[in-house]
Design goal:
4 helices; about 25% strand; 6-stranded mixed beta sheet; globular; two-stranded antiparallel sheet; alpha/beta; about 130 residues; 8 strands
Length: about 130
Amino acid sequence: MLSLPDRPALQEALSSPVRPDIQPLLSRRIKRFFDDGLADYTHLLVVEADDSEAKLLDEIGLTPFEHDGIRYGSSDFHPRWDLLHDHGGWFEMTFCIADSGFAYVLLIEDADRSCLARMCRIMSDPLD
């Protein structure tokens, strides 16, 4: 998991080596955060296929698999995230937190071994 919690980390990621399959999307999203004035209000995470739910909970204190005590898979489950898009190979999931404009943005690797990616495939909307 790559965690970019603030403006300096986002800026540094633009010039740091990353996996070639995520680099174009990561760069586009980071540049957009800066262009839109959101770099101080965004914690970006690159969630790879082998990253666990526990690791995500440790990093940001929430999980996409649960909302108000109800787990994904239950007929009563309603997602906690605000946006979920399929970028082809990677999903983008956004959690807007409070009224401050702060958001957690997760770029999630689409891989068969990932429970999170399987959930994203079922629940996402493709971007045009």
